[in-house]
């Protein structure tokens, strides 16, 4: 009997979209339920029993419950044996995972102030100086990506598309769609066009959502 993958999280969430794009690359079916701001509350006792952090996405399958978007993506790729997206050989796998971790721990925090100010228009993020500093810091992180892409000439971890490109590709889309002054990063621009040839990116990444 085939078990159904259930994804909890609204489709506009950047972290939910990582999982949806991964499913698209894997060609696997899933059911999705809307949870998060504007939908069912992630602070409800029902949701907190699944993820005490009150954040989406959460997945449920025959193995149980899992949260943290990058971990979910790794799990799904491993479960379905797609070593093209996440190699089995330790060094090659580590090169992919280091960029996934960089996205979560370095790039993600860098966009926080500018995104909340300019896209979410949160009144608590409207300090002009902090906005300038935040945008500068975001661009500095993107300069690291520019150098890496100029070095590989193709994708983040090397010549082939991997799971690192799913999580970072969505971050690139957010950077391009947020109205800040951006340096000219030609390797990032070419990378974005490369990703735009993938149906999963068009559906879940380059889809009008930052």
From TrEMBL:
Domain GST N-terminal: 3-84
SUPFAM superfamilies per the UniProt record, alphabetical: GST C-terminal domain-like (SSF47616), Thioredoxin-like (SSF52833)
Pfam families to which the protein is assigned, alphabetical: GST_C, GST_N
Domain of life: Bacteria
Residues annotated as domain GST C-terminal: 89-210
Annotated InterPro entries: Glutathione-S-Trfase_C-like, Glutathione-S-Trfase_C_sf, Glutathione_S-Trfase, Glutathione_S-Trfase_N, GST_C, Thioredoxin-like_sf
GO molecular function, one term: transferase activity
Keyword annotations of the record: Transferase
Family designation: Belongs to the GST superfamily.
Protein name: Glutathione S-transferase
Organism in which the protein naturally occurs: Pseudomonas vancouverensis
